[in-house]
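Input chain follows. Return structure tokens only.
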Amino acid sequence: MGVLDGKVVLVTGGGNGIGRECALLAAREGAKVVVNDLGGGVSGGDEGSTGPAETVCQEIRAAGGEAVANTESVSSMAAVKGMVEQAMDTFGGLHAVINPAGILRDGMFHKMSDADWDAVIEVHLRGAYNVTRATIEHFRNQGEGSYALFTSTSGLIGNIGQANYAAAKLGVMGLSRIIAMEGAAKGVRSNVIAPFAWTRMIATIPVKDEASAQRVKRMQEGMRADQVAPLAVALAAPSCPASGQVFSVRGNEVALFSQPRPVKFVARLEGWTPETLIGHGMPAMQASFTPLEASAAVFPYDPV
């Protein structure tokens, strides 16, 4: 017996990295899996291939599971609707979506092209919208459905050179929160995961100094894609109570993140002016400012 026995799960980006591990584990936990993967490179610019998705399906079938491949892009609503139809036609239903599909086009914001901004927003934020919007009515009507969407500490905390990725990933967090709130009465859950794992996407990040080289080495050795999959599969399972939450996985650590809430108040009976805010309000709040630090400063220690 697995936590996904009798369920049908769509896994995007399922041909490599985190998506591959999620698809394989979902199948081992009893799910019938639609393995979606465009088969392109991490920048999203090269021609796709049927190979990665079908290879994962073959591995699932060889182990006694059921899977079907899909090679369309999550950035297209028509393509995502086709994934849903494929799940319904092939397996007779759909109960969960795990959505780690993604690309990177990193660069300093003052040098970022419109094309690099648009490409990342299309895959990550528009893609998350597409997979949720194409399935939400079905989930609400059947009184059951779950989303494991993917955010990033690039958005939750910050990383230099990833403004497009950070904006998209923080948008995914907001999207998931509202889906969870609106779906609570209909049995629909949504959560997000900020993964730490060595994948093809992470391998594209430039290594410019010894500190970043050491960080990359720690990720290769101690933060693997297969360590992320158990949380994604757990969140997809109908027995999981979590909804509207933000998690991270770092090696064998699972962290529950806080979500933005007020941390400091200042008040002035006569109201504020720009001058009094600069002279009084800001200094009163300054000790509670969030530092301009990257995610490596928040997680400076080796993973468990």
